Amino acid sequence: MNKIASKRALGVFMIGAGVAVAAAATPAAAQMRPWGGRTGSDAWRDGPGAWGDPLALSNPRSTVRDLPDSREGQVTAEHFSAKDAAGRLGEGGITITSKPDSTPDARDRLTYEAAMIDRLVMAGYDSQLPPDEIGQVAEIRIIRTVAEPAERKRNPVSGSTAVSVSNRGTAYGMAVNVDLTKPKTALLSTRMELRIRDRETNEVIWESRAQIWTCEDDEHWEEGDIATRLSAALLEGFPSSVQGPA
Questions:
Q1: Spatial separation of the C-alpha atoms in residues 5 and 155, rounded to whole Å
Q2: CA angle, residues 168, 174, 176, in degrees to nearest 5
């Protein structure tokens, strides 16, 4: 009887010990399972605590540079003339002068004057006549302003870190952003105004305005290029392209 009781007691002890060992092993086994409670490659993709969640907490700066301003290189123009100007435009002698309040320096103003004279000659005027045979005067003004300021210099390397903690474990994430693009230069607005006056009466018989947007220090937009584009826009369709009285 004592042997039977001893065997039963030993069996109960072994069963209890086995349950205890299994209970102790269960948390460890659960920690070895991939986050999300699934197995295979899908277990590491989605769901709470999945790989990638810590990085989702950060917001590194994009390495893709913004697209160029849509205004760059665009030209707008307006034209006006006096009611009785049709028979007086595009013929005879003409001279040109720059208004003193124009913003470019004196050398650049000469560039704009030369471009404008070329267009006036193409329109039918004569710029080589003696002063006493000149019947009209072309006045130009150039105004340059900053439409969009230049971007500030930035650190080319930046990054962020994040930690995600859950009952399934702990994950660490780090993102490094390398941006080697140069900061954008300022976007400049150059406006050119033209008035053609009768030399004797000082009456304005033609007026036009043109504007272009270009990037500062851009090799594709030298002063001569800007002057040529604006001069052409000021006399586009001259003298028939008229929107109203001056």
A1: 80
A2: 160
d(CA 112, CA 231): 8
Dist CA 215 CA 185 (whole Å): 6
Do residues 221 and 57 lie in contact, with contact meaning Cβ atoms separated by under 8 Å?
no
DSSP 141: E
End-to-end Cα distance, the chain: 128
Structure token digits, residue 57: 């907490």
Q: What is the pTM of this model?
A: 0.61
> Which tops the pLDDT comparison, 65 or 114?
114
Separation of alpha carbons 245 and 89, rounded Å: 14
Comparing C-alpha atoms, which of 225, 191, 221 is closest to residue 208? 191
| CB of 117 closer than 8 Å to CB of 96 | yes
Q: Please write the tens of the pLDDT for every residue from 153-186.
A: 766 667 778 888 888 888 878 787 776 667 778 8
- DSSP H helices, 66-210, are 106-122
- Tokens at 198, concatenated: 């009768």
How many other C-beta atoms are found inside a 10 Å radius of the C-beta of residue 71? 15
DSSP, collapsed to helix, strand or coil, labels residue 106 as helix
Assess contact for 37 and 176: CB atoms under 8 A: no
Give dist(CA 141, CA 193) in Å, integer.
Answer: 5
